[in-house]
Amino acid sequence: MLLRWDGPEQIVETEIARCLSDPERAAVGFLSAKVSSKCERSRGKLSCPLTEAIGLGEQCGAEHKRLVDAWLGPDGVPSRCAEVPDTAFNQAVYNEVAVETKGDRVIVDDSGTGTDGPDSKTWSWKERFEFQRVGSSLKLVSKTATGSPRRY
Questions:
Q1: In this structure, is the dihedral angle defined by the CA atoms of residues 57, 64, 40 and 28, taken in order, positive or negative?
Q2: Residues 6 or more apart from 96 whose CB is under 8 A from it?
Q3: Percent of the chain at pLDDT exceeding 90
Q4: Pairing assessment for the beta strands 91-102 and 137-146 based on DSSP bridges
């Protein structure tokens, strides 16, 4: 498990993150571009534990976009890359993120929870993204989901 919760803390397993291949990092970077989980803004930059652990630096920054776009092309970083700090009123966080490679497939499973703020409604989701490696690129071949990281 690359990311999990231990009590009140979100844990990113840096030992696992260091061992990810570039295609796996790109697949997880694709995921992190959709939800900025437990991120902090400092000096105009957004620091996110998951994005940093996989070696992509600042959330939605040049390195993050470069690697994801290099592997996924037009399916890479969305035009509205998630840049929501931990202090935001509306936010979503990952509860779990797991990545595995089976042959030419990279599979990323995630689950998470979102909130509209204090005393507001919450929602949750589970997703599975399956990418196929074709040469030096990845193609999203399957997505299954229950719920959505975005409530609206």
A1: negative
A2: 1, 3, 4, 5, 109, 110, 111, 112
A3: 62
A4: unpaired
Q: How far is CA 77 from CA 10, 15, 33, in A?
A: 23, 25, 6
Q: What is the per-residue pLDDT for 118?
A: 75
CA 49 to CA 93: how far, in whole Å? 12
pTM comes to 0.90
Domains of the chain and any CATH numbers: 3-146 (3.10.450)
Q: Which residues of 136-145 are buried (b: 16+ CB within 10 A; e: fewer)?
A: eebeeeeeee
Q: Are the C-beta atoms of residues 128 and 143 closer than 8 Å to each other?
A: yes
Instruction: Give the pairing of strands 91-102 and 105-115.
Output: antiparallel
In angstroms, the CA 10 to CA 93 distance is: 9
